[in-house]
Each structure stands twice: as C-alpha cells, then as structure tokens.
Amino acid sequence: MRSLALAVGLVVSGAASAVDVTVDLGTHYQRLEAWGGTPIMNPMSPALRDEMWDVLVEDLGLTRARLEPNRWEVDNDNGDPFALDASRLDTSSLDAKVTTHLLPFRQRVEARGDKFWL
Fold it and tell me: How many CA atoms lie within 13 A of 114 on its CB side?
C-alpha cells in the first residue's frame, strides 16, 4: 500500500497543535475528471524537465495542464483592433512551450491510460 504522510499544523481556538495525517493513495472515494494546474514552463534541462513531468504525472497523477500563452504581438499588427493580420503575430514562444513541455506531459498522461485535459 502506497501512502503519503503529512505533518499538518492546526490552529484551534488560538492554540497551535501538531497533527499527523496519513493519506492512503490506494483508497478512492471519488474520481476527479481532471487534476492539474499551470505547469512551470521556464527553460530547463531536458533531464530536469523529464523528472518534473514524471513526478507530476506518475507520483501526483496530474492529467490537466493549463496553457497561458505569452503576448503574440509586439505592437498592434495593423492598427485596426477589429481586423487581425495573422502574418504579423509571433507565436514562436508558444510553439516552443507546446513542443518542449505540453506534448511530453500529454504523452505521459496518455501512456498511463488517462485522458489528457487542456
């Protein structure tokens, strides 16, 4: 049986006391459709990135990632807020995040047999 032991500090009526909490990872009461958050997508070595995804997917069971693109246009693409000139947008930083972070995360989630959520 895999379990996770936590030390939790509680404040009850103004007095602090320590409590030991044990989480049994083998006992399930309900199923979450997606579990995740906004991953760190900063540049890092491939080995560190792989280790991060292994912990997030294999140990914590994350299945969802939130993608927050950076700014795509340095200045207004054509001066008209109601018309888009897509040729003037720079999506290279978003492309890099998807390639180096999001796709490896998705592959790990699906390799476990879980549905990937974005």
Answer: 21
In contact, 111 and 101? CB cutoff 8 Å: no
Residue 21 lies in a domain: no
Residue 67 lies in a domain: yes
How many folded domains does the chain comprise?
A: 1
36, exposed or middle or buried, with CB in 10 Å at 0-12, 13-18, 19+? buried
- Domain annotation covers residue 92: yes
What's the pTM? 0.62
Sign of CA dihedral 23, 27, 28, 34: positive
Residue 107 is part of which domain span?
Answer: 30-111
24-59: per-residue pLDDT in tens? 878 888 777 787 877 666 778 888 888 888 888 888
